[in-house]
Amino acid sequence: MKGLKSTTWILLIVSLSFSLVNGHGGSHDEDETDDTHNSLHSKGLVLVKIWCLLILLVSTFAGGVSPYFYRWNESFLLLGTQFAGGVFLGTSLMHFLSDSNETFGDLTTKTYPFAFMLASAGYLLTMLGDCIVILVTKGVEKEAKVDVEEGIGDDGHGNATANLNPAFLKTSSLGDAVLLILALCFHSVFEGIAIGVADTKADAWRNLWTISLHKIFAAVAMGIALLRMIPKRPLVATVAYSFAFAVSSPIGVGIGIAIDATTEGAVADWIYAISMGIACGVFVYVAINHLISKGFKPQESCYFDTPFYKFLSVLFGVGVISVVMIWD
């Protein structure tokens, strides 16, 4: 039954990805010939981005609180997270980087690799966010280890929590908690901006399913970790953390929409090229460091927890994006 459920979920995700591609309404050539519906400032495009904002908020929040009501199959989460990493990696290099580089080529005659430089900057910015998380949680991690050694750091069933991500542990002060949430959601805001500055409806929908796929898996993993660490009050904490995590990408979408609404012509093109370049670096960092290298850690022995199956999952994710780009 667990294997059947996992297979069903994987088929649903793949079906969703291809249905969104087919629902884009054609290629960029068709989009560019319909200025009324697909211009940067058209009401239709803004409406699509608002729908993306709402879908991101609801889907991520639902994923975060779902472990309280549903026991997820760990094999599915393990391979699904790796698949999401492949999707992120393929999207960043084949979509964001190529669009940014192409736009810079139209805007300037200089041969400087602006898109690649901005991708490097986005990678470093996201890395800086992780450094902030490490600084904030450094003392909390030490406290957690002391608790485990004293026998009080378990999940209520005798299972130690020392191997869990300290980023989700209760911080020592309100200021630390606020800083922690801001650092954890830093890259999510830039992910949302990628939707907000999309120049066509097709790009907005494509960016939506890419980002939401990653965020749902991340939210589910976060909810599971919270249930293991704070069993005495899991629902309240799960709802609070899930909402904070869920609202970060929609904030980015809103920022992107505001950017589009206040810029026109060459300025809008420059902002789009810069945003896509930075988003590429953010996506590469998240794909490699958060999804592929770390990913979801099963608590029990898992048959699929091997480098080969992880590679196949990442390969499948990159392959899906490769096929999707045929219609770009």
TrEMBL record:
The chain crosses the membrane at residues 47-69, 76-94, 114-136, 177-197, 209-227, 239-258, 270-288, 308-327. It holds the Pfam family Zip. The keyword Membrane applies. Residues 1-23 form the signal peptide. Its main location: membrane. GO terms for cellular component: membrane. It is found in: Membrane. It comes from the Eukaryota. PANTHER family: ZINC/IRON TRANSPORTER, ZRT (ZRT), IRT- (IRT-) LIKE PROTEIN TRANSPORTER. Keywords: Membrane, Signal, Transmembrane, Transmembrane helix. One of its GO terms (molecular function) is zinc ion transmembrane transporter activity. It is a multi-pass membrane protein. The keyword Transmembrane helix applies. This is Zinc transporter.
